[in-house]
Amino acid sequence: REATAKFGESAKTAGGYYIPAAHMIGLATRDPLYDLKTAAGHEAWHHVERALATPAEQRLLGLPSEIERMRRTLVAPEMGLDPSDPRLAAIQDEETRAIAFQRYRRLREEGVQPSNVHIGVRKFFDRMIRLFHAVKNLLSRRGYDSFEAVFERARTGKMASRGREMSRPEEISPALTNNQ
């Protein structure tokens, strides 16, 4: 609510949240104001960024010049704002990066190569997209036919009883390499 209030919005809910200490994501699964896939990707980004960015990538992603570039080129159009809108400066850096990735990922899925994105940021974003696809492919081979099924099984505790067969890092580790 705090984030939407800064923009004069009246939303009484949020699409989701991330609690870093618990490595926990919560989603508004029945709130028609939020697209579940977008909210899930946005909240997952917060964990992925902390867990998988190298120190060099973290430094790059945190540079004031890159935060400003993300706000102008990715966040403003995602939020329907003019790139010079002063409200963009009120968005926390971590939210800026999550919204920027959300827009970047959607554009890539539509076959568009976003312009004016630092090559290092682009490489990291593309690597995370490959990781998300690798995880999706792994889960589909295990009978999860949608992202909703993943969250529903987690919510009901069925995922906890899955056993160790789901833990095969070698099946997704190629997606983490920097060489693509």
Structure, described:
- The protein has 180 residues and is mainly alpha-helical.
- The protein is built from 7 helices and 2 strands, in the order αββαααααα.
- It has helices at 2-5, 36-52, 55-62, 64-79, 93-109, 119-141, 147-156, and strands at 16-19, 24-27.
- It has a two-stranded antiparallel sheet with strand order 1-2.
- Strand 1 and strand 2 (24-27) form a beta hairpin.
- The termini are far apart.
- The relative contact order is 0.11.
- The model is unreliable at 1-10 (pLDDT under 50).
List strands and helices in order, with pairings.
Elements: H1 2-5, E1 16-19, E2 24-27, H2 36-52, H3 55-62, H4 64-79, H5 93-109, H6 119-141, H7 147-156
Antiparallel strand pairs: 1-2
Helix pairs in contact: 2-5, 4-5
Going by helix content, strand content and strand pairing, the class is mainly alpha
Low-confidence stretches: 1-10
Overall, the morphology is globular
* Strand and helix order: HEEHHHHHH
Mind telling me the C-alpha Rg?
A: 17 Å
Mean pLDDT: 78
Helix proportion = 40-55%
Topology, number of strands:
2
Helix tally? 7
Spatial order of the strands forming the largest sheet? 1-2
> What portion of residues belong to β-strands?
under 5%
Main sheet makeup: 2 strands, antiparallel
For the termini, the CA-CA separation is 39 Å
What's the short version?
It contains seven helices and two strands. It has about 180 residues and is mainly alpha-helical.
